[in-house]
């Protein structure tokens, strides 16, 4: 479906606007062109999808869109001239008709065009999703041995993250600025990959320890097999310090303190989630999900699982856990007393790409993260795969893999005929929508960029 937009200029003497055609199956599109961008430009649209306004400020361009899909993605592309060439400029997930997108605008003259992609259309919606994502890259890890050894060397400190050997990393998440945090389990530390691609230690001494609970510089706080991580929207980083039975808090000032301890310790824990106000936290402890509140302390919240891995909270506030022992993803409701399987058939095999998620075998389901739309990504450790479950409950294979596989960097991520990943431990979405994958016994963190490869 194609929509042409007429965009009147209001009190903007230096702006010029043109409409351009663009065709994309399963999408609607509008195009605008602006030279010498001015303060605000409302539009009148023929059709539902429309440009609702733009505001350039301090090198950034704030774009407003109307009539977007309520389960979709808006893609923006830019060009130096009306005829192109067009390059990807930014994406945003949409959950209501109004959408906003902030783009870094280095030019005083630019042409922009937008596409709205519908994700609610089953296989066609998944195809739209794949077209919104682009390159697969490695952002951390040089590949070490497959053994559970500490492979960190002082020479890695401050160097390129892709030249550093990680030691069985279990989780990676990013903050709003784009800094990436990794729990480097067997090296007993948390690493930060900075925007320039260099890696530093922010928590831990690179050997087993049990650092103080009171605020202390992060690199003076000993950890013991940290294997869970949560990065809050306010910049706080929380670490599941497994063998010390503690949840640590790394503040934006670099100081680490203990948020709470788990009486009796944590049994094979990996999953951790903390809300932004620190009023509630969940911890996975093998067969039990424990909940912490400042007033109530730590209690058993949901029991009866087999071998819990990662956990998160869905867009509606429900706890969701991965249980690799039952090869399943579960949604926990009713204050922890009820749960429903939302992916996995309880077996390692069955079903498959394009089938119902609850009829598909997920061999060692281990990671889960949600999109704003309510769909979610999951990964399987023994199955060496990343899957996408759409809002209708159907599962689609995103990345395929095999034992000790690491391939596909620098190419479009979507080629399920090729083995590209292995032993996937965790998936997360950063605040820009990029998919982060912690994988491989040799220790890698991969990224699938939330930026289309573009069409012209």
Description of the molecule:
- By secondary structure, the chain is mainly β.
- It contains 1 helix and 36 strands.
- It has one helix at residues 123-132, and strands at 5-6, 27-35, 44-45, 50-57, 60-66, 72-79, 87-94, 99-104, 109-118, 135-140, 169-174, 180-184, 189-193, 199-204, 216-217, 226-231, 237-241, 246-250, 255-261, 272-274, 281-285, 288-293, 297-302, 308-313, 319-323, 328-333, 338-343, 365-370, 376-380, 385-389, 395-401, 411-412, 419-421, 426-429, 435-439, 444-448.
- The strands form 9 sheets. The chain has a 5-stranded antiparallel β-sheet, with no helix packed on it. Strands 15-19-18-17-16 form a 5-stranded antiparallel β-sheet, with no helix packed on it.
- Strand 29 and strand 30 (385-389) form a beta hairpin.
- It is globular and about 65 Å long.
- It starts with a strand and ends in an 8-residue tail after the last strand.
In short:
It contains one helix and 36 strands. The chain is an all-beta fold.
Report how far apart the termini are.
17 Å
Structural category: mainly beta
Q: For the largest beta sheet, what order do the strands appear in spatially?
A: 32-10-36-35-34
Number of beta-strand segments: 36
Characterize the biggest β-sheet.
5 strands, antiparallel
Strand content: 35-45%
Oligomer: single chain
- Number of helical elements: 1
Q: Over the alpha carbons, how many angstroms does the gyration radius reach? A: 23 Å
Percent of residues in helices comes to under 10%
Mean pLDDT: 88
Shape: globular
Which stretches are poorly predicted, pLDDT < 50 over at least 5 residues?
Answer: 1-25, 33-47
């Amino acid at each position: 479906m194609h929509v042409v937009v007429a965009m009147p200029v209001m009190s903007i003497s230096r702006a010029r606007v043109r409409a351009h055609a663009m065709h994309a199956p399963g999408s609607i599109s509008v195009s605008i062109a602006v030279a010498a961008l001015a303060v605000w430009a409302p539009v009148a649209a023929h059709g539902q999808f429309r440009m609702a306004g733009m505001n350039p400020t301090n090198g950034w361009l704030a774009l407003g869109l109307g009539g977007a899909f309520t389960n979709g993605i808006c893609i923006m592309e830019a060009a130096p001239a009306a005829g192109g060439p067009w390059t990807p400029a930014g994406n945003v997930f949409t959950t209501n008709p109004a959408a906003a997108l902030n783009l870094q605008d280095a030019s005083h003259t630019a042409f922009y065009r937008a596409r709205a992609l519908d994700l609610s259309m089953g296989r066609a919606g998944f195809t739209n999703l794949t077209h919104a994502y682009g390159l697969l890259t490695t952002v951390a890890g040089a590949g070490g041995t497959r053994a559970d050894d500490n492979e960190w060397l002082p020479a890695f400190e401050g160097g390129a993250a892709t030249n550093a050997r990680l030691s069985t990393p279990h989780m990676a998440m990013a903050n709003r600025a784009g800094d990436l945090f990794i729990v480097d389990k067997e090296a007993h530390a948390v690493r930060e990959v900075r925007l320039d691609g260099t890696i530093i230690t922010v928590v831990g001494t690179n050997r087993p320890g049990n650092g103080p609970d009171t605020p202390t510089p992060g690199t003076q706080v000993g950890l013991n097999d940290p294997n869970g991580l949560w990065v809050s929207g306010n910049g706080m980083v929380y670490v599941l310090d497994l063998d010390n039975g503690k949840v640590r808090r790394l503040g934006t000032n670099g100081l680490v303190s203990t948020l709470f301890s788990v009486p009796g310790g944590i049994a094979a824990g990996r999953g951790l989630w903390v809300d932004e106000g620190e009023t509630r936290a969940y911890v996975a402890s093998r067969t039990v999900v424990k909940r912490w509140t400042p007033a109530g302390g730590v209690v058993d919240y949901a029991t009866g699982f087999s071998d819990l891995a990662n956990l998160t909270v869905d867009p509606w506030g429900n706890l969701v856990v991965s249980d690799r022992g039952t090869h399943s993803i579960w949604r926990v409701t009713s204050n922890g007393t009820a749960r429903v399987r939302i992916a996995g058939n309880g077996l390692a095999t069955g079903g498959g790409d394009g089938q119902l998620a609850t009829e598909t075998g997920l061999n060692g389901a281990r990671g889960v993260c949600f999109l704003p739309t309510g769909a979610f990504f999951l990964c399987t450790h023994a199955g060496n795969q990343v899957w996408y479950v759409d809002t209708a409950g159907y599962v689609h294979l995103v990345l395929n893999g095999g034992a000790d596989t690491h391939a596909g960097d620098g190419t479009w991520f979507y080629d399920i005929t090729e083995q590209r990943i292995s032993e996937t431990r965790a998936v997360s979405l950063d605040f820009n929508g990029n998919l982060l994958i912690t994988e491989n016994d040799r220790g890698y963190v991969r990224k699938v960029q939330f930026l289309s490869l573009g069409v012209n």
